[in-house]
């Protein structure tokens, strides 16, 4: 009797059940059909075991399909499944298919759309991959560091290197001879065969690591330049290099130690990695198949061709908002109606107002500035928009009631002001060591912030506590498992055995990187940081290094989990400034060191974790990924330090407001003034993401999953890459040479959108706030 029951539950799956299961799983028909054989072989007891494991692992996972969880709960709670399985064959068959797909593939449609599970045999640590990768590290580090201090700036993103390295790799495949040598029993050839996706992703990871200038450069510039601290020892190449290596590698070491929390768990999807994976898959794994899509049409265009079409379209279009008609970037049409109406521009203005504008931009770069709606889950996009909308209402209430004297200041700016409503002169309150002078401070003014900055401070401090609480409440199980695996990592067994998703099982074939490698790297980098502070007259304490690293360690796991599941990064600049100001009162340089080793190191650690997840998805051996990241970081540090020395010594008038080549260093002026780090509030940068996010993540994904899986991330990476290349061409060929188009479309803003205005005016000679000499 038992055998007949088992045979009944293993009978072929009807088309109706297949369609229902596909909808529950957010899976394509092909994905469900691929696991039928595995599902047929499952026993009822094994199905229950897998279903229970999936429920425990994903019951609080907002990225996991809720319909799948409901089905698994019904299966677990239905007593007839165990007692009389012949009465519920549909539920059993459906559950078997669901647990089979979730066991043999990623549980997330986003990941399944851009990854393959059977490519562990392809070589990646090849001579050509190393040469091409390091070449792009040198190129991107040079350009990004050189032009990072220019306004407008140019910044080459990872997707640019990924796209440009493909034809270079294919050329190496075609023209290089198959000659090489044997080292440790492995043959290394100039041309080992076709240029494959693992080589390409290794190059991409190296470019991603090397493209970012070291976070220590803000310290170097503010120390060296006469308009700031004027400490000429900061021009020493060895001092600059020690700081660069120390700050960069500490982020890498922390990322490696947190792999059990941020890389290996399947819940750590890292949505921002999907576009890079999609391009990698598009260029190397093109198996074209027709998919049903909108307008009742079947689409059979290949992803590569779709990428080319989308790339060309966006490349051509970006010339309009990027150069020909720049007012399309921030489409201030409401403010143009009456540019001198302060109330209108304060509410609707996109430059100096709050950005309540229903049609704020025609620039995809602006639309994805805060949230990349084709990549980030729609719940996150909508949550961000609602928070931004409510924040705008609060700002209006504070401003129009003149709370904290904000009515005498612009409504939306990240600058700091004195009690006359003028820009705050930080130098006026510092002594010759550039420490706070209390007497000068009492004679000058308190610091006053705009309403938008105040609300940003409040919201950010609320986020710091809620982020930690959320992570503990919703991801406690994952954190405990991560610590357990971390301790077991010192044993000889693979820690990946604790993670049973398909990608971890495939990666377990490779030798892991021991924790002590990363730990030793951290110790070495701390020593470098201490040496830099102690060996030169910095007038600060090495405690800034330890306190800063402590901040990064404390918040890396909660911040990393949120970044890995939602795609949004919480930045701790406000908190690091607040804590360092209390720990090192009046010592501006110590505060800069704390911020560099704290919030900046945290951001670098998250970037390294993102790249480790890319290697995990594409099955790059961990020790190869480690070597590639270390090499790229070293090369980038040397290159950026060399470029930095050139900037400081050979660019005449660097960082001056009217420098002839526009190397005005806007970010260092802001940082030195200890102003708000993250830009002013503007809902106009968030609202444009809502509609395309809903169309992509809700409408198209819900109705045409196969179409969405095939084209969504390809569209995202095509747009971002086209914009980056078009912006680079515009910059180097036109803007850098002073070629501008002077017409109304580039000069449309006037009135309060051209120059900051205030609601209240001070009488001549008066100031607001506490009286001079009585500042708290």
Automatic annotation (TrEMBL):
Note the NCBIfam families from the entry. ISP4_OPT (TIGR00727), OPT_sfam (TIGR00728)
Keyword Membrane found: yes
Q: Which family does it belong to?
A: Belongs to the oligopeptide OPT transporter family.
Q: Which GO terms describe its biological process?
A: protein transport
Which Pfam families has this protein been placed in? OPT
Q: What is this protein called?
A: Opt oligopeptide transporter
Q: How does it sit in the membrane?
A: Multi-pass membrane protein
Q: Which GO terms describe its molecular function?
A: oligopeptide transmembrane transporter activity
């Amino acid at each position: 009797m038992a055998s007949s029951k088992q045979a009944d539950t293993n009978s072929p799956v009807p088309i109706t059940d297949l369609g229902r299961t596909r909808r529950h799983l957010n899976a394509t028909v092909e994905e469900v059909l691929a696991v039928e054989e595995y599902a047929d072989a499952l026993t009822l007891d094994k199905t229950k075991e897998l279903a229970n494991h999936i429920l425990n692992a994903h019951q609080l996972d907002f990225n996991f399909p809720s319909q799948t969880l409901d089905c698994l709960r019904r299966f677990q709670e239905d007593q007839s499944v165990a007692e009389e399985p012949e009465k519920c064959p549909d539920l059993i068959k459906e559950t078997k298919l669901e647990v089979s797909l979730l066991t043999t593939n990623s549980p997330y449609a986003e990941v399944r759309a851009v990854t393959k599970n059977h490519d562990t045999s392809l070589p990646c640590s090849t001579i050509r991959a190393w040469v091409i990768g390091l070449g792009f590290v040198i190129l991107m580090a040079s350009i990004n560091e050189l032009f990072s201090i220019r306004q407008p700036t140019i910044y080459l993103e990872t997707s640019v290197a990924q796209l440009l390295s493909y034809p270079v790799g294919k050329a190496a495949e075609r023209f290089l001879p198959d000659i090489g040598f044997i080292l440790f029993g492995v043959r290394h050839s100039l041309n080992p065969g076709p240029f494959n996706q693992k080589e390409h992703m290794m190059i991409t990871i190296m470019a991603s690591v090397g493209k970012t200038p070291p976070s220590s450069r803000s310290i170097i510039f503010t120390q060296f330049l006469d308009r700031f601290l004027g400490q000429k020892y900061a021009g020493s190449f060895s001092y600059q290099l020690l700081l660069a290596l120390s700050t960069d590698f500490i982020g890498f070491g922390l990322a490696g130690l947190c792999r059990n929390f941020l890389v290996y768990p399947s819940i750590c999807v890292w949505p921002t990695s999907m576009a890079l994976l999609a391009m990698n898959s598009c260029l190397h794994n093109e198996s074209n198949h027709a998919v049903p899509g909108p307008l009742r049409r079947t689409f059979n265009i290949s992803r590569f061709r779709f990428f080319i079409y989308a790339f060309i379209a966006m490349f051509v279009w970006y010339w309009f908002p990027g150069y020909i008609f720049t007012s399309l970037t921030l489409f201030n049409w409401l403010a143009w109606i009456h540019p001198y109406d302060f109330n209108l521009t304060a509410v609707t203005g996109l430059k100096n107002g709050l950005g309540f504008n229903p049609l704020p931009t025609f620039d995809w770069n602006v639309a994805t500035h805060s949230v990349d709606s084709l990549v980030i889950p729609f719940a996150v996009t909508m949550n961000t928009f609602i928070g931004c909308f409510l924040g705008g209402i609060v700002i209006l209430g504070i401003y129009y009631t003149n709370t904290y004297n904000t009515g005498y200041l612009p409504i939306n700016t990240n600058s700091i002001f004195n009690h006359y409503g003028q820009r705050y002169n930080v130098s006026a309150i510092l002594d010759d060591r550039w420490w706070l002078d209390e007497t000068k401070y009492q004679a000058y003014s308190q610091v006053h912030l705009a309403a938008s900055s105040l609300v940003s401070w409040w919201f950010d401090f609320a986020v710091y506590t809620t982020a930690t609480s959320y992570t503990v409440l919703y991801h406690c199980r994952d954190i405990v498992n991560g610590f357990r695996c971390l301790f077991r990592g010192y044993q000889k067994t693979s820690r990946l055995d604790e993670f049973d998703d398909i990608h971890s099982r495939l990666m377990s074939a490779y030798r892991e990187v021991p924790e002590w490698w990363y730990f030793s790297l951290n110790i070495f980098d701390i020593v470098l940081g201490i040496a830099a502070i102690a060996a030169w007259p910095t007038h600060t304490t090495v405690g800034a290094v330890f306190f800063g690293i402590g901040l990064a360690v404390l918040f890396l796991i909660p911040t990393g989990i949120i970044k890995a599941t939602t795609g949004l990064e919480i930045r701790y600049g406000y908190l690091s400034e607040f804590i360092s100001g209390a720990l090192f009162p009046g010592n501006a340089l110590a505060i800069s060191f704390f911020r560099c080793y704290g919030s900046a190191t945290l951001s670098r650690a998250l970037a390294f974790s993102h790249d480790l997840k890319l290697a995990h998805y594409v099955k790059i051996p961990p020790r190869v990924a480690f070597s590639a990241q270390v090499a790229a970081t070293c090369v980038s540090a040397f290159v950026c330090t060399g470029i930095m020395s050139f900037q400081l010594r050979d660019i005449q008038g660097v960082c001056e407001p009217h420098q002839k080549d526009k190397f005005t260093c806007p970010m260092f002026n802001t940082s030195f003034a200890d102003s708000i780090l993250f830009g002013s509030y503007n809902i106009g940068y968030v609202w444009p993401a809502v509609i395309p996010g809903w169309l992509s993540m809700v409408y198209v994904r819900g109705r045409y999953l196969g179409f969405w899986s095939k084209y969504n991330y390809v569209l995202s990476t095509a747009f971002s890459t086209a914009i980056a290349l078009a912006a680079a061409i515009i910059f180097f060929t036109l803007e850098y040479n002073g070629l501008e188009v002077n017409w109304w479309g580039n000069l449309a803003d006037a009135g309060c959108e051209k120059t900051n205005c205030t609601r209240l005016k001070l009488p001549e000679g008066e100031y607001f706030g506490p009286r001079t000499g009585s500042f708290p």
